[in-house]
């Protein structure tokens, strides 16, 4: 009897279900053992999440690295200003008023004879404290109110929308002039409270829109069909997928709050002497801009670099968290 030729297709078809499974398993093992294979093809590979992909992109973004280094330096000098600046920012000598840079004072002296370098370093503590605390308060209050309104809708959604419209109609600087002019406290907390009071509507609208978009997804409908409670759906399924836009807006707003504190302090309704603030120093140095421009240049430059660093950080985070930009 003549020998039949070997046909691969017939051999595979004749192996049956068990043979096909063995063949698939052997191919999977081959892919796993093959060096230089595509990432994530092995059976032990873990799928990457949005946050892991975002962190991978951020580490390769030079804008993020530069802004993060600047912000880390600002945080460091805010916590330990004496590490790079000796002496007290409140110690002044009128005999050195408007003097230029010299030993122990690389930035010179202001109109009151205070060391501009020391006051610029210590002013970072006030700006970072106000910016971080105001951002946390705004993000927490706005996210909770906007998230609940977007999730439940109805009367609560309408009430929040009309309330945010009222707050959006209040000019920020004018509101600060009116509200903070009657405050006698010399701490940062009235300024932070004012920023939270007028800043939460923006975050609430972002959170509301993100929650409305997330609650229409199939996985939310599946969780609801399986009997999950509203709190579980909101905290476990919607919040992790709706928080990215809030983080981006809050990061950019942090630099805005630092600039707003300096503006209010410049106008005399924010922080007041003897507090140390870049806005106070800019206001005090403005009349001497011709005779001592260095007293105005350094606190203004520090404020501009700080605000720019947080805006650049927010832009980098936005690009990393937006799948459409990949």
TrEMBL record:
Per the UniProt entry, the signal peptide is none
Q: Which GO cellular component term is one of those annotated?
A: plasma membrane
Q: Which UniProt keywords apply?
A: Cell membrane, Membrane, Transmembrane, Transmembrane helix, Transport
Region of interest (Disordered), ranges:
1-48
Q: How does it sit in the membrane?
A: Multi-pass membrane protein
Q: Which Pfam families match?
A: BPD_transp_1, OppC_N
Keyword Metal-binding, does the record have it?
A: no
Biological process terms from the Gene Ontology for this record are: transmembrane transport
Q: Does the keyword Transmembrane apply?
A: yes
Describe the location of the ABC transmembrane type-1 domain by residue ranges.
Answer: 124-314
Tell me where the transmembrane regions lie.
63-81, 128-154, 166-198, 242-260, 296-317
UniProt lists the family membership as follows: Belongs to the binding-protein-dependent transport system permease family.
Specify the protein name.
Peptide ABC transporter permease
Q: What is the lineage of its organism?
A: Bacteria, Bacillati, Actinomycetota, Actinomycetes, Kitasatosporales
């Amino acid at each position: 009897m003549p020998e039949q030729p070997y046909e691969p297709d017939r051999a595979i078809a004749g192996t049956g279900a068990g043979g096909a499974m063995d063949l698939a398993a052997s191919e999977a093992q081959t892919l796993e053992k093959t060096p230089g294979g595509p990432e994530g093809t092995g059976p032990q590979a873990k799928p990457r999440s949005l946050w892991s992909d975002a962190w991978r992109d951020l580490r390769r973004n030079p804008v993020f690295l530069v802004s993060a280094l600047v912000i880390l330096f600002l945080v460091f000098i805010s916590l330990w200003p004496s590490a790079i600046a000796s002496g007290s920012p409140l110690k002044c000598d009128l005999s050195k008023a408007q003097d230029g840079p010299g030993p122990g004072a690389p930035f010179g002296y202001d109109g009151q004879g205070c060391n501009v370098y020391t006051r610029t370093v210590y002013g970072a503590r006030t700006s970072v404290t106000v910016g971080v605390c105001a951002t946390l308060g705004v993000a927490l209050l706005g996210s909770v109110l906007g998230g609940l309104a977007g999730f439940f809708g109805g009367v609560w959604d309408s009430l929040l929308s009309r309330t945010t419209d009222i707050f959006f109609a209040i000019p920020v600087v004018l509101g600060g002039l009116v509200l903070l002019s009657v405050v006698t406290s010399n701490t940062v907390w009235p300024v932070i409270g004012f920023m939270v009071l007028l800043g939460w509507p923006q975050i609430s609208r972002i959170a509301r829109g993100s929650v409305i978009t997330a609650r229409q997804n199939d996985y939310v409908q599946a969780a609801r069909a399986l009997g999950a409670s509203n709190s579980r759906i909101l905290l476990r399924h919607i919040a992790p997928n709706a928080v990215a836009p809030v983080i981006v807006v809050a990061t950019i707003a942090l630099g805005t709050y630092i600039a707003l504190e300096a503006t209010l302090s410049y106008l005399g309704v924010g922080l007041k002497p003897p507090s140390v603030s870049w806005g106070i120093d800019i206001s005090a140095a403005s009349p001497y801009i011709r005779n001592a421009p260095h007293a105005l240049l350094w606190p203004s430059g520090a404020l501009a670099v700080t605000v720019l660093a947080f805006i650049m950080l927010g832009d980098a985070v936005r690009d990393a968290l937006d799948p459409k930009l990949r």
